[in-house]
Amino acid sequence: MRTELTSEERAVYEWQLWVDDFGEKGQLALRNASVLVSRCGGLGGPVAYELAAAGVGKLILAHEGNVEYSDLNRQLLMTQDWVGKPRIESAKRRLQELNPRLEVEAHNVNVNEENAAELVGAADLIIDCAPMFEERFAMNRQAVLQRKPIIECAMYDLEASITTIIPGQTPCLACVVPSVPPAWERQFPVIGAVSGAVGCMAVMEAVKVLAGFGKPLLGRMIHFDLRSASFSEFQIERDSDCAVCGSL
Length: 248
Fold this sequence. Notes:
34% of the residues lie in helices and 18% in strands. By secondary structure, it is of the alpha/beta class. It has one domain (33-235): NAD(P)-binding Rossmann-like Domain (Rossmann fold, 3-Layer(aba) Sandwich), CATH 3.40.50.720. It has an eight-stranded mixed beta sheet with strand order 3-2-1-4-5-6-7-8, with helices on both faces. Helix 4 (44-54) runs parallel beside helix 5 (87-98) and helix 4 (44-54) crosses helix 9. The protein is globular, with a radius of gyration of 17 Å.
């Protein structure tokens, strides 16, 4: 556990140290934190990049497969010269180019029921960027069991939503979406700026939770549609009969 910043860290993070209620205490909280990011594609890539830039000490990344040409419109940690090679290696390389102080634990797998407990257990906070609900439900169950905060963000076409889950205090994912939506598929319309927008919001939620300042989206969800540039916020409630968190 680090108790003070180095002179280099003070220089790198100088401007964010000026943020009210954050300061050096908040920066140290980020430096000492580990965050699991599920997938580092169109949504998770900007999330991981902004976490690295903000000074989070350790990132645990889970993303299977090789870079494809169709990734390059939105997966900002991937490069054309890396097509055909593992996405996770490109992500690790790019993140450590940005922040050589960053520890990256890279897994060439997607989250599933078998590995979710271990991956979630290694992190202080989870940011769910997975496109498939099976992955999202596996992380949600483990986050609830292990009492780990999880930032839930998702996008489709030009729309996106985000909320912050604190097990025992807020609704979990299963309270809001009890089962896989019908006809949901892995491939769907994406413009990279949309996933990047909600990804940056997810990072701010993570920073607030880890550093203990501001007002996270607890029991609240933000939805936006960038086709019309419209934003809405609404309350979400815990389901007392939720199969995942109802007993907490």
